[in-house]
Amino acid sequence: MLRNAPRHLRSWTASGIKYVRGREPIVLIALLLVVAVSWGFIELADEVNEGSTGDFDRWVVRSMRQADDPTQPIGPRWMREVGRDITGLGGVSVLSMLIAAAAGFLAIHRAYRTMVVLLVSTIGGIIVSSLLKQFFARPRPDIVPHLAEVYTSSFPSGHSMMSAVVYLTLAALLAPVLKHFWVRVYVLGLAVLATGLVGISRVYLGVHYPSDVLAGWAAGLVWAVGCWLVARRFALR
């Protein structure tokens, strides 16, 4: 079939096949993930701007509170403190300490290029998160009292995005330093778990809608995977 195709089409096809063959499957999966999640973020942002997620968002936030008293979250009384402790894992102060600790770890191992990529990617992700908040400027949930202090707008969730950016980027950049396969899987699993718990805690505390958290996860994942691809390219060079 290709023999009968126009010359420029045969050339494009051959270039595409060569491109695919020159990449590992994990890189192609990462590229596909970036495209798919980016598209999902755009679609979700569009739905939020149109107000299509309003009913679902309010239902989820309200379901996290007791039916007879919206000031009290569901679960035992100590769960409120647990939620605040977990949400702190996505705060700027905690994440900054983690970034500094990881940078020191890489410096000790003389992985200076990886350290630079880590600092640029994580700090850049935090800046992007702030810019996205200012751009969308979505009001915070007002149907239940907030159980944590908030100072910025709601969409996307900064804690969710920053935790995804920092934890997933840290795991992706530190994994090659770890020798054993299951240790790398364990570290990546912890990063995913921490990111997920931080996002859930934001809804539990009544300071974010679930769509805010989903958008934060999506944007953070795209940023982390993109930074990993860049770091991988530098490592191969």
From TrEMBL:
Keyword Transmembrane: yes
Database matches in SUPFAM superfamilies: Acid phosphatase/Vanadium-dependent haloperoxidase
SMART domains reported in the protein's UniProt record: acidPPc (SM00014)
Record field: transmembrane: 25-42, 86-108, 115-137, 157-178, 185-207, 213-231
This protein's UniProt keywords: Membrane, Transmembrane, Transmembrane helix
Presence of the UniProt keyword Transmembrane helix in the record: yes
Residues in Phosphatidic acid phosphatase type 2/haloperoxidase domain copies: 114-228
Classification via InterPro entries: PAP2/HPO, PAP2/HPO_sf
CDD domains referenced in this protein's UniProt entry, alphabetically: PAP2_like_2
Name recorded for this polypeptide: Phosphatidylglycerophosphatase B
Taxonomic lineage of the native organism: Bacteria, Pseudomonadati, Planctomycetota, Planctomycetia, Pirellulales
